[in-house]
Amino acid sequence: MAEISPALVKELREKTGAGMMDCKRALMETQGDLEAAVDWLRTKGLAAAAKKSDRVAAEGLVAVACQDNKGAIVEVNAETDFVGRNENFQNFVRTTAELAETVKGNVEALKKTPYSGTGKTVEEELTHLVATIGENMTLRRSAYLEVSKGVVVPYIHNAAAPGLGRLGVLVALESTASTENLNALGKQIAMHVAAAHPIALTVDAVDPAAIDRERAIFREQALASGKPAEFVDKMVEGRLRKFYEEVVLEEQVFVIDGKTRIKDVVSASGKEQGQPIKLTGFVRFALGEGIEKKESDFAAEVAAQLGK
Questions:
Q1: I need a labelling partner for 115 at 20 to 30 A (CA). Which of 76, 125, 169, 223 fits?
Q2: Domains along the chain?
């Protein structure tokens, strides 16, 4: 077998944009023949996928998959919203969410998980999909919730298909109360989460860095107001309480009735059902949030392609 030098692997990577290990494998499969290795990568769809990998993928779908006391959520991105309506893409995202349950939402483990009926891993199946559809796609993130007794309730806002959409939520309720009642309560809380966008379940769970940042801002505002120094600390703590009411799920006012805090909604439901209920977690994925999207001038792009 021909020796595969690092320089040859580097040259193939520069020529195709494929990953290092894929390039090495291609050269091994073709006994070091550079052009044959290019063709091998193209046949496998790896070169085509890699060439698209620098394009921003902020569209796609969020999917949820739940079984009684456990559930997973994934976000798979593509470049355009048209792909979100592609049946093959939808099937991939739905299946990936189901597989995410088996690895408890670990993205790296999920990528290596066998994809049903193909002989490929999830990551390899996604690469194949990129080559087939012609857009950059990424398995961006996944999360998992589980309770010992109770339910994990999924919710998709404005679903594009069953279990699929642009905004997905999971809510975990721990209790021995009726599953039917827990699901009804969980659905309402999940709808609240979708609308209110909390960042933490409890006050104690808020990122200390976020609290420090808010406290510093509130202190500057209080000092700038001209109030006496002895009142500044009280003003800061008052504004922090307001901050918690805005971003902490338990402290938020229930959007459905506009007056009751979520923690009191859960407590009242437990008393009504005769069994304590504990809200143990939530996850909210909004498609593309946090991804920097490139602004493009369509007319300029067309003119450039026409050589004008």
A1: 169
A2: 6-51 (1.10.8.10)
